[in-house]
Amino acid sequence: MILGGVTTNPSPAAGSAIDGPANLRDVRGLRTHDGRIVRRGVLYRSEALRSRSIDGVGSNDVAIWPPTTVIDLRAPEEHLTAHPLDVDGTVVHSVPLGVSLAPALAAVRDDHPDLALAYRHLAKDAAGEIARIVGLVARADGPVLVHCTAGKDRTGIVVAVLLRAVGVRHEDVMADYLRTEANLPRLWAALTAAGVPSPRNSALLGVQAEALEGVLDDVDATEGGTAGWLVEHGVDPADIERLSARLLSAVYAPAA
User: Fold this and answer.
1) Residue 130, Cβ neighbours under 10 Å: how many?
2) For a Cys-Cys bond, which of 18, 43, 61, 64 suits 27, CB 3.0-4.6 Å?
3) What's the CATH superfamily of 20-243?
4) Under a CB-based contact definition with an 8 Å cutoff, are residues 172 and 34 in contact?
């Protein structure tokens, strides 16, 4: 349940089905201001997967599997096992996102109780890593999966920046982020079953609209918007164009 834009902190539901990924989805169908949409089968997001197979609840959301490129945002200490997708046909890029400020790690301390503040610090601290990710996605030759441990905080920030960089509407970006809310009971049940400890900071159990809003406000306020923010942090402008061409359909033109 969302109260004032903040999702109440759910506990894992008793008896929740945890077969298959809980928070995997294709970031498709979102619209830009000029009438284009995000293509199907290009950009996926998820929690850390436990196996190469995605059979089970939610797997029908993904049309092409496995991805050819995986961007793993986790810190080294979060790697409980070898990456299940690190096999022939898939390249896994480890891009730890703001290791010292990653929400899942900062939340085990009591000095980061504010998720919105943690998000903004993380985006600022990890701007170089986010810039690198833009280049990886722009130059990939097949579906790209972005994930962290839960697939909601670090993944949410990175996916939001990718989408805003190519002009996806603010409201569509927020709607995609908040889709995780419905997955939280299964997600936390699966993470608990995998041995991932629950964060002591209860804010990390949910999603907060205002947390991502703060990040988008910061990057959109840069001259040139999100694309300008990325260029300031090292992205080749040509990669912004490549990213747009990869992610978006052509502008729809109705018949005369």
Assistant:
1) 26
2) 43
3) Protein tyrosine phosphatase superfamily (3.90.190.10)
4) no
